[in-house]
Records
---
Amino acid sequence: MNNTTHFGFKDVATKDKQHLVKGVFDSVASKYDLMNDVLSLGAHRLWKRYTIASSNVKTGDKVLDIAGGTGDLAIAFRQKVGKSGQVILSDINAAMLNEGRKNLINKGVFGVDFVQLNAQYLPFADNSFDCVSIAFGLRNVTDKDQALSEMHRILKPGGCLLILEFSTTDSKLLKKCYDFYSFNIMPTLGELIADDKASYQYLAESIRKHPDQETLKDRVLEAGFGFCEYHNLSGGIVALHKGIKV
Amino acid sequence: MQYFALEQALNYLIQTGNLDLKPLDNKTIRFALQDLPIELNFISANGRIFVISDTERQNDVDIRLSAGVFFALFKGEDLTELLKQDKLIIHGDVKTVQCLVDLLHSVDIDLEEVLSHYTGDIIAHKAGKIAKDVKHLVQHSNNPLDALKDGLSQLLIMPTVSKLYKNNRH
């Protein structure tokens, strides 16, 4: 692995990125859901709904949600797998995981397990999950290829990986509007609502540094998945990559 | 996205116990339409079926046929008869193809509608197609309200296919 990596537009020592990302999420955890709703105008709920609908998860399945934060996906997966299934909500950040736990309790959702973990070192047996999901989390992972390999390892043959992440739009007009929104309005809203401009500046920058759709697709295949297809959502602002282990 | 409704319908039938997947277990089957830039890849694995639009992998069975024959096949035309008439070319096990065709007969979905994305005005067509998908999913779901919400989500975020696939159309 290289000695340096990116943290937004900055180059930082690889060993420092995890700590820097932790700082961002420690800071935004308590206002995470509110900010997501405001910044995406509620669209993040639709993107996640589409992800769940695309998952083909069924009764009795075992599902791991990585970087699961406040638990939106875990709640939906819990309903899908039923009593005979298992859902694990995981996050590297304790503050986010605590928000997830509170959120699930408030919504009366029980039977979800919580694990604090690093996506690069998944503490699970080989071939043990039917579905692994990561929504808006992969771009914050220091070594994405190692994380993808780990996800591949723990999935059963025929298991499905779902990566929901900000991506790249083909439309020049949409890109211009989106850039203006990301670098001007988002940090300002972050300052006004969450009293944290820097974290939302990082959010905008980290999205631009994330691999585009085709590059990520290639990396999913390189991690060992037999098939990978992506769907652009909202003009490519977000993409859902679906990898299938063979 | 264009295969979303088809994949959903197949997996709904699997969940409700109406489809026997054993003959297709771990098989990948590709339908390549000669007169349209369309591929449908059916992957049967882990007790479910995935439908994707492109793959560079070697499939267990490859089928080449025209769009007209493809639609006829799924409307009930006899596979053996079509083979005798040289209307399709199969590389691989014909029995596997027959199993998949039988499964697709069980799915009450208009494949012509699913694939008409490639033959008409895409933008004008899309909302109508999604609306039809929603109607279908609502009718064939054990949770119609959830299916309706899924459909409305799709209408708002307008999922589109992979770039690689889009390029093939030009």
---
Amino acid sequence: MSYLEYNVKLTPTGLSKVLYINWALVVLLTAVASVGFLQLYSVAGGDFDRWAGPQMQRFAISLGVMFIVAFVPLWFWRSMAGLGYAVSVVLLLGVEFFGSVGMGAQRWLEIGPLRLQPSEMTKITVIMAMAAYYDWLDPQKVSRPLWVGVAVAMIAIPSFLVLKQPDLGTALLIFGGGAIVMFFAGVSLWYFGGVIGAGGGVITAVFASRGTEWQLLRDYQFRRIDAFLDPSIDPLGASYHINQAMIALGSGGWSGRGFMQGTQSRLNFLPEKHTDFIFNTLAEEFGFVGSVFLLSLYIAVLVVCVISALRAKSRFASLLTLGIAGNFFLYFAVNMAMVMGLAPVVGVPLPLVSYGGSAMLMILIGFGLVQSACVHRPRERA
Amino acid sequence: MKRPAKETEESARKISRRAALLGGAQLAFAGVLVLRMRSLQLGQSSEYRLLADENRINIRLLPPSRGLILDRNGVTIASNVQNYRIVLVREDAGEPREALERLAQLIPLSEPEIERAEREILRHRPFVPVTIIDQLSWEEVARVAANAPALPGITPEVGQTRFYPYGADFAHAVGYVGPVSERDLAERENPEPLLMIPRFQIGKIGVERELDDNLRGSAGHRRIEVNAVGREMRELDRQEGDPGTNIELTLDRELQAFSLARLGEESASAVVMEIATGNILALASSPSFDPNLFVRGISIDDYAGLRDNDRRPMSNKTVQGAYPPGSTFKMVTALAALEDGLATPEERVFCPGYLEVSGRRFHCWNRGGHGRVNLVSALSESCDVFFYDMAQRVGIDRINAMAARLGLGIRYDLPLSGVSSGLNPSREWKRARRDAEWVVGDTINASIGQGFVLTTPLQLAVMTARLATNREILPRLVHKLGGVEQPIADQPSLGLSAAGLAQVRRGMSEVSNSNRGTAYSSRIVDATMRMAGKTGSSQVFSITAAERAAGVRRQSQLPWNRRDHALFVAFAPEETPRYAISVVVEHGGGGSSVAAPIARDIILAAQNRGLPPLDAYPRSQRNRIESMINTISEQIGPAAVPTTGRSRA
């Protein structure tokens, strides 16, 4: 960038930043979250205070955090990427050794009054670190084995720690988010082909390990995979969730059974109806129309992010935006595939819709970074 | 770090290319999701809708109310009453132990009851209502209801249970109901779902059991919406079941009560039949028991008391008891001889007190002998030797045929438990069952209703009715079924010769009306009510030669269970017979002294449709009879109301 260019282009400062916020994205995120409020109100049987109320508060707070993140210059986030990554890994190690056990998995770390779920935060810090890494790395070198190896290690360490908790869903998202950044950074497609091939080998190994001493997955994870492959094996056991979820989804029909009329969710046949399976309550009550509407909102979010990424002037901004968007895609795609019986149940919530504060905060921090990239893009003087 | 612009541009182009590539892949995946939604929500939606309904809709059976059992006059003898019970819902009641102890301060709850209830509560899910105690009195329920605020999760409920207002009076005939047991289910090929309702009551013995299919009714149902754990959310619709059919029996409430009271403490039975129809008016078996105990769940002690009593209160002796008929069988022998002309009514036989047959001496009950007796006096004085003589002439085949004609040895098809066929012995029977040939001594024993012959009190009443009418009377117990009168069986003539039958009836008349008759002291002086009967005293153990040599002991000197059975059969009025009766008193001693007075009182009660009229008795007996009747009428209570007490194991 020459001095001249610097003179004609300008990064917004102060309150004028508000004007450069990507408002379309804010509106879309709010729309998605509103679908969540509606369904949380419905599955609570019309009890606003049970889920919908707290969820709205969390959304409001998270949105505030998003704006704060958006107003902080992007260079700051870039310089924080390495630190954030290091803190994440340290916290994950902390969970491993000092974490409290909840629901059969070690996920929480308690520091004083704070309850942290480091794996949530890691989804973002890995993407930031990868974007910063490829921004730093000479694009000519991205496909060299050494630098690919560094990137793979950066992804693999936190993924492995999360997998050990065990939290297969989050580990997948972390792994996927990092891989997406590598993909955009231009790493040779041969590597991806190789990984997919190796993945096939790993799956084979996982199944071969079943029942042996070095079993790679927990028994319940194997049962979930069995239930996915053939839901009729054990309708009241491992497959119960997915069967009931499919019934809820399928019984919605074209336009659904009506708001608050879904019997599957109202009568508790649907498990985890306010978290992982909330999409099914929407599908039951609003049918095909409602389901496609929500999917369209998600796609619109992606499109807005991709446009923003392509207009970005820095490599870091592009990679970060695309990484966050890719992560968001993985989020809803895995959840929807799971609740529609296209993927095993791995415990990934529906972003911004499922009940839960930690995930929502991290997603909006992620979009805060996207906004920051958008706000702090050098622009022609008006 | 600065990089040449060219490089940056190239990396930006690469990002755009890859974004297009991955974006395309993502859109393709979104397309897959949409296709999947389309196939599930549009393609298979009706299938899934059905599955959703199957999930949420449960069908619960509603027990129908059981048909009532009425007597011939429409008096309810088996009714349904409110059954108050206490139901506890754990999730509202909190700690079950504490809740039960709070409850125990209001209603009597024993420690074992509390423990059992606690176990039952903990077995169910917290929202399931568990019946912790039932058969409560209204007072107890009212006490619980009044304290409802202090007893969260504990509610009184009302259902139906069987109640027998006349208690012991109909215990044997009507029987009782109880909760369905494993055995009840095992007996049925394909048990109705209704029987699976917890604590559902079905008939266990008697009419309740035999006509259970009529009485039970059919279940109603309600469709309810349940949630995933089965908790009822709301009722979708409800269809009440059809109540069971009411049954009107031929029994007469008052006569039944009188008969049972008159039998008193004896181990005895009495059957009263209306001759014209065969209707059984009274079917009394003593001692009896309170069937309500069984409905509530009888205590172990009460049950042991009934089971171990040597007078067998739980047996319905009127149809289950098979006794040697003794001299009441003599009419059969007499008619067998007369019908085939093997004897004439006027013929006389000399009774020296015994008869030698093939070297064996058969004794008459009167050791001094009756002298010369004819048919009439042989019946009225109950001379045994006369019938020994007849027996030798007619043989067992004719006796067997006549007994069958008069209704003995037949199992009557009545809705009662354990109806016995008695035993009308024949040559074939002895050959098949005893693997021995019939000998003349068997015939001689049979001629006076001893030896192999066994009859039930019901059969004796039928025999008496047939003797009184020369018609094939059949007993009838069910008068109306659901208001529809049941047909009376055809009564074809027995075809016995009028002359012979007239002599037998005359003999029976003299039994209680001639001063030489064995039941003269039980005569009825009112000419319109006079009865004709026959006494019987059947030996339970044969008297050995040694005992006879030592002198036959008086019945009162024998231990109870070695005494003779006392029997009496009669019909009345003797001119136009309307009622037939049989009375059997186990180990009562003598038919004339024990059974005949009972039969007289009961048949007078039947004729008078109330208590026996005092002026029908000989003047000299009236004082004694009056006090006896007063005692009995005090025992006959009005219908009981459902009791307050509980008895439970």
